Automatic annotation (TrEMBL):
GO MF terms held by the record: methyltransferase activity
InterPro entries: SAM-dependent_MTases_sf, SAM_dep_MeTrfase_SAV2177_type
Annotated SUPFAM superfamilies: S-adenosyl-L-methionine-dependent methyltransferases
Keyword vocabulary terms for this entry: Methyltransferase, Transferase
Name of the protein this chain belongs to: S-adenosyl methyltransferase
Amino acid sequence: MSQKVVPTHIDTSKASIARVYDAFLNGKDNYEVDREVLRRVQTVAPEAQQLAFDNRGFLIRVTRFIAMETGITQYLDLGSGLPTAENTHQVAQRIQPESRVVYVDDDPVVLAHGRALLEENDQTFLTSADIFNPQEVLNDPIVQQELDFTEPIALFQLGTIHHYDGNDYREIMQAYIDALPSGSYVGVSHFLDPQTEEHSMLARRMEDMFVHSPMGTGLFRTEEEIRSMLPGLELVDPGFSLCANWWPDGPRIKPLTEVSYCIAGAVGRKP
């Protein structure tokens, strides 16, 4: 596996998006400041961890769909986060062993753990770049070297762009989509304001806790706003959906938690 030299200093006084997500998943690679974010969100949404579990399940099912149904064997996973069970490359390579996965992140902890995890996997790569700067990512030497942009690619922006508070999120996604060849697929998942009397207040309370926590990010956008991140794409059935409802692994035997109504996603194909 190849990677850039990155800073090794880790500031444990500030919460990290990747480590907070790890805390939400009951992982071990987080610090007290990261767990504080979880505790704050749990004051308004005791089942807040379900946001992370729903997102992780969505990633696994989307990767499985891409590997089994589309024939694509190239993945660009933006904001890969800390390694956990069933990462993109593990799901994809189990089905299509020749699959190549490039992870992109700029968190020092992610980069350190990723290097160790991927040391012996010559089909999986990790590089350091700002995922909200498409040109930086697309021009990255590892991205350019390991992915063939003349063949379809699966690009994932899963559980990431809700941590971007600029108004040009549509333009960011447009730049990525423009760079992909025809037949590529794009997956997006995002915190959702369902705009319903029952769940909108919950979404806004969680957003307030995220934004005013040591992490400082976590926006709950509307369906219209999230759909706008997939311009010109043909959405795969069932289209825009709660993450928990996107091709679940089996029949539902218990009702969704309240927070499950506050994270959604979609997968689109570039014609």
